[in-house]
Design brief:
Elements: E1 29-35, E2 41-48, E3 54-62, E4 65-66, E5 70-74, E6 87-92, E7 95-103, E8 111-118, E9 140-147, E10 153-159, E11 175-181, E12 192-198, E13 205-208, E14 213-218, E15 228-234, E16 237-238, E17 242-243, E18 260-264, E19 267-274, E20 281-287, E21 298-299, E22 305-313, E23 318-326, E24 331-339, E25 348-353, E26 363-367, E27 370-376, E28 384-390
Length: 395
């Protein structure tokens, strides 16, 4: 495939002021934005209720307006983290799910996943479910939702029940990958281990096509190679994991940089950050067979990426990837349009952001011919920042 990578001529996208923005408060943190089945958006985020406590809020964009924010949960001991943050998901119709992380002990990573489901578009929420049943105080997080092949709610997560001990019952163990699903009546199925040794704190991603469910995550080998793996459910069973591309990135620690999947009908794309031989890179690859295999990766960055990717299809032939990249004097959210035929258009700057982790994972979704971006700004008056940009301004 042809690859075009241009390392100059960055342009700021023009903001679209006519479209409404969600109302968030100063100090709010870590938005998650997802599409709805009727062409709108859902956004969840953390918002402070006082100097130390938080609430998980959500709002919906429909008919060119955002609804007044509503509370999903508040008053608990939440795990509030720039990389492992809550999410919201539209399963179909008026069924919405959400998840957050709740502390279970005094250890810095003693927390568990909580999942709630609403069948009336957020008017009422179920009691919280804990998808993992190990009862171990430790890290459980980095959730991604999907619709399983029975149209039920599925989710995948990183599970630290075996992190406390190694093979000799002492020292450093291994992070696992698990998944489960909920029946149409809201009952949980038993969790299933998908991989028994993966990277410890990189977000997961999942999508559903007509004939398959595809999961993406960062693997970890005995030799500390941490490339991106795919696990695919098709024809009634889960297939063995395979690497999207053998990057060969050897790193003795988690880079906190997960992959992102996106699908348009049965075409699938994946974006990810890697840095073999100390060469930081953001790649995009396409699958034309519902995730059974992927084409060779296309490099899209400007040579100094930090990562934290997002990915959406903008038409049947092209995706838009976003990531964070360093410049000489600034840190920026950058995007690039990539075609299935291997063309990478000039990367464009969406916004300058504060350096460091506070920005979290910038979010991106498309509504008609407009793109919506959301991220976190730090500082005394910082909080969730949002922006609409016309898709045409990226051409």
């Amino acid at each position: 495939m042809k690859k075009i990578l241009i390392l100059s001529l960055l342009f700021f996208g023009c903001s679209t002021s006519e479209l409404a923005l969600p109302i968030t408060q100063p100090g709010s943190r870590y938005p998650r934005v997802v599409p709805t089945h009727n062409g709108g958006l859902l956004m969840s985020w953390f918002e402070k209720t006082d100097s130390v406590n938080w609430a998980l809020k959500w709002s919906e964009f429909s008919d060119a307006q955002w609804t007044e924010s509503q509370t999903i949960t508040q008053g608990e001991k939440y795990f509030v983290n720039w990389a492992d943050f809550p999410s919201i998901y539209n399963l179909g119709g008026d069924t919405i799910s959400a998840h957050w992380l709740q502390k279970t002990g005094d250890g810095p990573y003693d927390y568990e996943v909580k999942v709630v489901i609403s069948n009336d578009r957020g008017v009422k929420w179920s009691e919280p479910h804990t998808p993992h049943r190990d009862g171990v105080k430790g890290e459980h997080g980095f959730v991604s939702f999907f619709q399983d092949m029975s149209d039920n709610l599925g989710l995948v997560w990183l599970d630290g029940r075996n992190m406390a001990a190694g093979h000799d019952d002492s020292g450093y163990g291994a992070m696992n990958l698990y998944q489960t699903s909920f029946t149409s009546t809201g009952e949980m199925n038993w969790e299933m281990k998908m991989d028994d040794m993966i990277c410890e704190c990189c977000p997961t991603s999942s999508v559903r096509t007509a004939n398959a469910v595809i999961l993406a995550y960062r693997d970890r080998s005995e030799g500390e190679i941490r490339d991106i793996n795919i696990i695919r459910y098709a024809d009634g069973y889960w297939n063995s994991p395979y690497a999207v591309h053998e990057d060969g990135w050897t790193i003795a620690g988690c880079p906190v940089n997960g992959p992102m999947l996106a699908n348009h009908e049965n075409n699938v794309a994946v974006a990810w950050y890697t840095s073999p031989n100390s060469t930081p890179t953001v790649n995009v690859a396409f699958s034309r067979d519902e995730g059974a295999s992927f084409d060779a990766p296309l490099r899209v960055d400007l040579s100094q990426p930090i990562g934290r990717v997002d990915l959406i299809w903008i038409n049947e032939d092209e995706v838009m990837a976003s990531w964070i990249e360093l410049a000489e004097e600034t840190t920026n959210i950058v995007t690039a349009i990539v075609s299935k035929e291997g063309e990478v258009q000039n990367p464009r700057i969406v916004s300058e952001i504060e350096p460091g982790r506070v920005s979290g994972y910038p979010q991106m979704e498309k509504v008609d011919d407009q793109l919506f971006f959301a991220w976190t700004e730090g500082g005394k008056n910082g909080g969730v920042e949002t922006k609409w940009v016309a898709l045409s301004s990226f051409r």
